[in-house]
Specification:
Phytyl_CoA_dOase-like, alpha+beta, 4-stranded antiparallel sheet, Phytanoyl-CoA dioxygenase, 8-stranded mixed sheet, 9 helices, globular
Length: 291
């Protein structure tokens, strides 16, 4: 069991700089965690932008884990100019992701709010994001995501789990597992013996940046604590999908100064965000003949 120490960094509240140690850890382990990347007041702003959003609740839908539990999620393809859209474009988030991927200009691929409510949040099987995105026409795995908890993420309420370094395996075939699509369990069983299994416990304000080929999972939330997480995913301009699909093609994304988050007062920018109708989200369904 890894204690994550090689991939955990801390923001001191001053100007944030992506260091070579951060890049090395990301390339070696497939992820880094930055403690206190967002301040308390910035997290209050982010939480209000989520909890007061009409659009997020309007387009939320549940997804069963096949074991009597379900999670809710809302997904949007364009960031928009509201609080959640500004958050995923500030330099500390988007700029950091761009430097970690290291393949030039990035753009907003999509964002989503994952809602695992108390006592009923469903589990997710082991998977790679690129296991889905490969089928959307993305040639390269020059993609990544930033995981921003709005609540404490502990083992008790289903924090993310990763196999540190597993992104170096490349893409693993994904197959139907119950009601979900996940990485081939036979291969995952072997892989789990080779890489540290890390429970990524986080607090609001922390940020997890991870590679799209990193194997990850999460358990059911049977605790009394809600676990809501905002996840922003990015693609590189040079990796623009070769076919039109249900996530964003390359769209220029203007990165914003970090001060823009606290200056933003717009809660909803519904027309601009391109919220996804649940029936159109086929990323996790192609193994069932839907693409």
């Amino acid at each position: 069991m890894s204690d994550m120490k090689n991939s955990v960094f801390r923001h001191n509240g001053q100007e944030f700089i992506v260091t070579q140690d951060m890049k090395d850890a990301y390339n070696t382990n497939g992820y880094i965690v930055i403690r206190n990347l967002l301040s308390v007041i910035e997290m209050q702003k982010a939480r209000s932008g989520v909890e007061m959003s009409v659009g997020i609740q309007k387009y939320a839908h549940g997804r069963s884990d096949g074991n009597k539990m379900k999670s809710r999620q809302t997904l949007w393809n364009q960031p928009g100019k509201d609080i959640t859209g500004v958050l995923v474009r500030i330099q500390r988030i988007a700029g950091t992701m761009e430097e970690l991927i290291g393949q030039g200009e990035i753009y907003h691929y999509h964002s989503k709010l994952m809602m695992k409510d108390a006592y009923e949040g469903g589990a997710h099987v082991w998977h790679q994001d690129y296991g889905y995105w490969y089928n959307n026409g993305c040639i390269f795995s020059d993609m990544g995501s930033c995981f921003l908890p709005l609540d404490e993420c502990k083992r008790e309420n289903s924090c993310l789990q990763v196999l540190a370094g597993s992104h170096r395996l490349g893409r693993i075939d994904h197959i139907t597992i119950g009601d979900q699509l996940g990485a081939d369990p036979e291969r995952v069983d072997k892989v789990r013996k080779l890489f540290p299994h890390v429970y990524v416990e986080m607090c609001p304000g922390d940020a997890l940046f991870f590679h799209c080929n990193l194997l990850h999972t999460s358990d059911q939330n049977t605790s009394s604590s809600r676990r809501w997480v905002l996840i922003a995913s990015y693609n590189t301009r040079a990796n623009n999908p070769y076919k039109v699909h249900h996530h964003a093609q390359y769209t220029p994304m203007s990165k914003l100064p970090d001060t823009a988050l606290l200056q933003c007062e717009l809660i909803d920018d519904i027309p601009a965000k391109a919220y996804m109708d649940p029936s159109e989200d086929k990323s996790a369904s192609y193994g069932k003949g839907i693409h």
